[in-house]
Amino acid sequence: MEEILLKCAVVDDSSLQRLSIVKLIKDHPHLKLVAEYNNAIETKNGLLDNETDLIFLDIEMPILSGFELLDDLPNKPQIIFVTGKTKYAFKAFDYDAVDYIHKPVNKERFNNAVSKAINLFKLKHQNATPEDEDFIFVKSNLKNRKVYLNRLKYIQALGDYVKFITEKDNFVVLATMKSFEKQLPSDRFLRIHKSYIVNLEKIERYNSKNIEIDKQKLPLSRHKKNNLVEALSAIQ
Predict the structure, then answer these.
(1) Mean pLDDT for each 10-residue chunk of the chain (236 residues)?
(2) pTM above 0.85, yes or no
């Protein structure tokens, strides 16, 4: 198996904090530092020139926050948030973060987060087949679970959790609908209701109030009906 070497960038407005992360990166055998940035604007421009697999990202920065930076990136590397505040941990789920580390960072916690990034990199890039390209990873029971899109029927919101209904089984994860609405291809999946995102190819029938998937009726929001008709027409 080819040795894994993740190209890394550190983004933090504090030079001391950057220095501590840089040292940990340089001491790690599977990481290579390619850039340091002290603000989000510099990072956005720098990522155009530096191929990056993993970013160690602060959240509270001048001008643009770490979250706002990610909102502006069309192609996101893996993200490990490194911050002095714990209050953003839940929001980090919306950005599919690999991990969320609280400052000050110790070596053991750092290496644990990096291990997650390395494992995810292996899953995505090694021994890939055409079928492997058509999936997303979902964090379930502290592990990254592969979900093939052609087997996913629909997703249901359950408070702070999201339920996945697939052809094989059902499972629940701690996440938000918004995070998966961003990940799923819009030409194949549609949010038909505040609590449901459906696989358009799995819809068997519909009317003005419901859609039906595998004999299961799901509510259709009135203002989503036109979107549904257009989306189904596009895939026919």
Answers:
(1) 82 95 96 95 88 94 92 87 89 86 94 93 65 75 85 94 92 89 90 96 93 94 92 80
(2) no
